[in-house]
Amino acid sequence: MKYDTVVMGGGLAGLICGIRLTQSGLSCAIVSAGQNALHFSSGSLDLLTHLPDGQVAENPLAMLDALSEQAPAHPYSLLGADKVTQFAHMAQSILQQSGIRLKGSCEENHYRITPLGHKRMTWLSPESVPTVGLHQQMDSGKIAVVGIEGFLDFQPQMVADELQREGLQASAHYVHLPLLDRLRENPSEFRAVNVARWLDRPENMAEIVEEITPLIADSDTIFMPACIGLDSEEPLLELQKRLGKPLYLLPTLPPSLLGIRLHETLLKQFRRQGGILMPGDKVTSVNCVGSRIESIQTRNHGNISLKAKQFVLATGSFFNNGLVAKFDRVYEPLMNLDLCEISERAKWTHKEFFASQPYMAFGVKTDRLLRAKKQGEVIENLYVAGAVLGGFDPLTQGCGAGVSLISALHAANEIVNELDKNKAVQAEVVQ
Length: 431
Ligand SMILES: Cc1cc2nc3c(=O)[nH]c(=O)nc-3n(C[C@H](O)[C@H](O)[C@H](O)COP(=O)(O)OP(=O)(O)OC[C@H]3O[C@@H](n4cnc5c(N)ncnc54)[C@H](O)[C@@H]3O)c2cc1C
Fold this sequence. Notes:
Protein name: Anaerobic glycerol-3-phosphate dehydrogenase subunit B
Distance between the termini: 29 Å
Family: Belongs to the anaerobic G-3-P dehydrogenase subunit B family.
Helix content: 25-40%
Bound molecules: flavin-adenine dinucleotide
Pathway: Polyol metabolism; glycerol degradation via glycerol kinase pathway; glycerone phosphate from sn-glycerol 3-phosphate (anaerobic route): step 1/1
Function: Conversion of glycerol 3-phosphate to dihydroxyacetone. Uses fumarate or nitrate as electron acceptor.
EC number: 1.1.5.3
Shape: globular
């Protein structure tokens, strides 16, 4: 099987790369082993919220030069401010074209409200999530925070208390929905995604409206856990219309409905554009000839190789086995690629829990074009994208999704340019 590009890993980075490649008319296959970080995420996408020295990045793009000085191995520093700016704008357009309704801009971060009612800075948030601009006060009037009886992954009282501490008027409520009684019998099944499967059914809408209405009579705005609108936002918009008040969703503990919806929407866009997804398959070996990859093999395809002109490694970090940590060793399991400097074992972690943990920045080392290196030599047709890259801390620097989107779009752009160049050379030879 032969493609222009094979992408290893189908998380945020792999999918966005595949969407850009297929949009440009290239054939692309994504091999994806399993769930990805989006299934566990807030659904909001971070670009850059803090520099390594703790400085707050209200305007992420304006902080890129300072970031380069403090973190020269950060993927943004390797690419340079101009490319990061170009690809941040491109990411916004592609997400929008894919049918994802997000608010926010790379010019200025905003705050989203967390499941605990705190404010957390971010770049893009789903339209349905409550947000507030920097230096602004939320203008929501009286907020009713409505939890679902028996659903332990969301505590309305904690959210309401925190909102009150912020000077807002908020009250906590629980809605009892008899239609969920069957689900309630098994507490381990009472999770956001399973709840949504019931709440999303049109025949249940009248009962949901009837039960919530008396709780919100005195309120102007409603906050609920993100348990409605799994496949599309339609059920949420319908409920909002029937309740007659703005209704916002707060992320819950994983599995995250907001992250899953984002993933599914990107997947649909990739397939709509002719992309081939191989879900549940796993890259098992990579065959190199000289400084280039010729083909890869996967668990499900056995001896049948997948060949391509270009490859992208987007297998994620420790969370999804893109990197593996043993007691005294960290490695990239597919090709044993070079990694950014790994400190001695005792320095992998910092004893202060909330400090930047050194192991978070472990990852694959690349050249400035984000091509992987092995034993110091660049692999010419292997770009690295997303969380498997080294040199950044997604948690304390608030840049996880941004690195995935920007490195993936950079890889796609390089591939498109390179294949265009090759086509032009071939055309000249033919003439
Ligand atoms: C729990 C968690 C929550 C997060 N929440 C947020 C958030 O709210 N906002 C934010 O901005 N960032 C968040 N992040 C940061 C996150 O890393 C990025 O946002 C981004 O989603 C990572 O995408 P990725 O595609 O690089 O990697 P991943 O999402 O990890 O995807 C990698 C994919 O590669 C597959 N894979 C691995 N090995 C192979 C193989 N050999 N063959 C085939 N496939 C393979 C995996 O199964 C997986 O599907 C979070 C990270 C984690 C771990």
